[in-house]
Amino acid sequence: MEIRRHTTHTRDAGLRQLGRINRWLIAGSVLLTAVFAEVAAHAFPGRTVKTTAAARPAGAPGSVASTHAPLAAPGQAPRAGSESGSGGETTVKPESQPSQESTQAPSQESAPKQESQQPSQESTPAPAQESAPKQEPTPAPAQESAPPAESSAPVISGGS
Amino acid sequence: MRPASPASATPGSASWEALGTGVVLRVSDPRGLGQARDAVERELAAIDRACSRFREDSELSRVNARAGRSLRTDPLLLEAVQVALRAAELTDGDVDPTIGRALEIAGYDRDWQLLSPPAGELQEPVRPRRPPDLSARMIAGWRRVLVDRHRGSIRVPAGVQLDLGATAKAWAADRAAAAAAEAGSCGALVSVGGDVATAGEAPAGGWLIRVTDDHRSDCTAPGQTICIASGAIATSSTAVRRWSHGGRTMHHIIDPRTGEPVEGTWRTVSVAAADCTDANIATTAALVRAQGAPEWLAEQGLPARLVDAAGGVVTVAGWPLQDAHETGAATVHERPAGAEGVGGLAA
After folding, report:
1. Residue of A nearest to B20 (CA)
2. What does pTM read for this prediction?
3. What are the pLDDT digits (tens) for A78-107?
4. What is the fold of B2-50+167-244+260-344?
5. For chain B, is the Cβ count within 10 Å smaller at the N or the C terminus?
6. How many alpha carbons fall within 13 Å on the CB side of residue B157?
């Protein structure tokens, strides 16, 4: 009788120990899974999660152009400008000795069609570069067609 | 952001300081100036709160501080980071937003207003706030930045610091110009640190812009005056925002492949594009690409003007020719689009 009780106690103790071991094993495997996931996240490059255009409402935050959209050329190439007669000064400090200017006109043939990305920019649809006129210096805008004198001096575009 | 100053209040034009640099607003109808300016100030303030690397309370600082973990963030920063990642993708990594640590190591670890001497001259060596860590010269790369639009979260790899300086100002100019044109019901031009964006109908004759090395220059600085009816002009230069660090002269255009300031062919590059973001992506990439820049710009169909260290000028893709006496340039050459063997100044 005594021997049977002892055997029962031993069995129960063993079962409890097995239960504890089981719980430790489960906790350990969860922890290891998390560690491996973190290691993998650091080891391999990430990527940008993209939504499709159809799934994304227009104008919604984050609805920037597709990451594959190419750099967009302007609707019109800039023209040579002159601030003469518009309040700006034209005297420039030479950076180095002047030299001759190339007479070669720019070739437009290989330029791609121009696309405007900016909906707020109300430029006319961009023509293909093939149809663009040769870029040559144009006369300064007439005084009467310019904005008010104080604000018609050129805006400076420079490094910052 | 510093409070706006009444530096200029002429009709149709205003200028003040924001985003650590100079802002210029022009409108085609002076009656819309007040509302346009309010709209620009709101836009720039929001972008400063979201994207400044130098504000501890900005969203970008929060994301950088939790590098290695995914973080839900402001939609504005999410969009700004997407713009920066697009720039990296389109330039094969020449314009990389993960150069924040490299800039810090180079000494550019605080707002330029605090870093630069009053006259913009080179100053005494700057001590970085953190001790130099040469391993940070290994740039992690933009491909490891995870942007999840669905969750509105960003995850920057551990040890990486984002810097949006290559795209955020131009992107801000685009947004501000659009906001100004809408608020003022007129055409608007906004320059943020020399990155010039336009929106709405231009005044008769177009917008006059002078491209030069430094946006703080006046109209007499060597350069070229051009006119645009729409789109944008951006200029990047290694001749400005320079400082001395560790006995070396540094500037803010970083080559992501080396983690150091570029030592390229070009001193200043100006590009015209449909919007200022694209123009500025192209100017920065051109400085990094050095001799390959003219050909790359021509392939993109982006009119551009490149000035080398000696003052020689190369133009591509329909950038208007200029009189040599206007720029004082050593040489002025037009590169036909797609021309073979571009690079250098030998015509």
Report:
1. A160
2. 0.65
3. 988 765 433 333 333 334 433 333 333 333
4. T-fold (3.10.520)
5. C
6. 25
